[in-house]
Amino acid sequence: MSEKDLFGEKNKKMPTPTFLYIGASKAGSSWIFECLKEHPEAFVPPAKDLHFFHLQYEKGIEWYESFFKKGEGIKTIGELSHDYFLFEHVADKIKAYQPDIKLLVSLREPVEKMISSYHYAKRTYLKENVSFEDFFFHHERYQKSHYQNMHKETAQYFQNLQPFYERFPRENILVVFFDELKESPHIFIQKIYHFLEIDDTFEPSVLHTKVNQQQKARFPLVARLAYTTASLLRTLGLANIVGAVKRNPVFEKMLYQKPKATKQPIDPKTLQKVYEFYATDYPQLTALLQQDLPPNWYRSF
Predict the structure, then answer these.
(1) What percentage of the chain has pLDDT greater than the value 70?
(2) Which CATH fold topology does 3-297 show?
(3) pTM here?
């Protein structure tokens, strides 16, 4: 389907997004989603991660905009799909769709982010005996999907963001850091509310609550089946169902529990290799963002 077919005949009656969260994963996106869901001047669909611009594009604009029909009359409307910034062609598609849209980005220190991704993978699709080193350097062995060869790229922020800065006005992009969320959630969400031009004095009930906390599967095979089923439902365009089930406290309690055992320590030499893999891009990222990175991004193990 061509860009003209998708966007040439927009349904003007349907509410359309005014903002998108484009990345990164494991950087507070679920917490941001809950804060936006609570705000009376913001609308987000029940589903986080619609994946329209890279996985569901062929379904067309009417399908996409159907997720926002309940946002009519609300000041700001948007969605959060943390993988959008992994693909340069997505920047072109978003630009064609809404050239003045606001883009929201949250970045987490890469080593910490990949460790978090590792524990999430162990909860959902990774066998318990797979080491962090094997997960990071040989991820393609364990996940056969469209992401299997892009695993490391999820934290290569300079190359992820550069296409968006080339296509969108700088003032339309807000980059916040996960460090800020940990240190001062009030200031962190205030920045986001202000950027979206909604009441930044609003205080969500989840302000001091951890969302999507690290957990351990009660029954690993069942958890993997749930993960596979959710991925299939998203592929079929049934993201709202996934969102509703995923946030059901009964379902969550059935599948997961708080980790009881002490985490297996990760070899510092491996962590140093991961740090060096990403740190080479820090000067370019700093120049692109025109701001310094948080101090704890510069580390040794």
Answers:
(1) 76
(2) Rossmann fold (3.40.50)
(3) 0.82
